[in-house]
Amino acid sequence: xxxxxxxxxxxxxxxxxxxxxxxxxxxxxxxxxxxxxxxxxxxxxxxxxxxxxxxxxxxxxxxxxxxxxxxxxxxxxxxxxxxxxxxxxxxxxxxxxxxxxxxxxxxxxxxx
Amino acid sequence: xxxxxxxxxxxxxxxxxxxxxxxxxxxxxxxxxxxxxxxxxxxxxxxxxxxxxxxxxxxxxxxxxxxxxxxxxxxxxxxxxxxxxxxxxxxxxxxxxxxxxxxxxxxxxxxxxxx
Lengths: 112, 115
Fold this sequence. Notes:
By secondary structure, chain A is mainly beta.
């Protein structure tokens, strides 16, 4: 299947710092999604992006759909302890409806 | 409450003993999908279903079967489990797999160990 490269693999940050992670793909996507997974639970949707160049915010979260449609980034500003978890990017393509591709995830650890 | 329910949450079994992981959603969603999560590999799609009686292979379908006889249920069947199927499994659903603004809702996962 398509390859999604998500980086960094893990981040150890102090409370109050900003966090940035990104995903790149070898193929074009029509949709970029960002999910967060808390320990022992399933992923929950944070932000959905549907147009190239789109910049969308959800509280302290901001995500952008890259102009080339092959990349996306997620920023978390002023991190707090509950931001701990695994963040996944996911891409969807009109060439393969139903087959959402996920990145390997970014583990975020926030220390007080 | 709108949700995707998987059972069981934890399962330990032995090689070759057939098992079924159930998945049910109460949101009248057309699309359902199974993923497995392994360290460093993220979520990989096993099978998906665009609607009742329609199923398709994802990226890692070998060793798994699914069925979609009714809209709300999408069981995952391992006819002869092997240790390399030890993983965390997630079921997910959405209104439609073909609509871009139709985000996935995930269940809470099933941790399977095959010895």
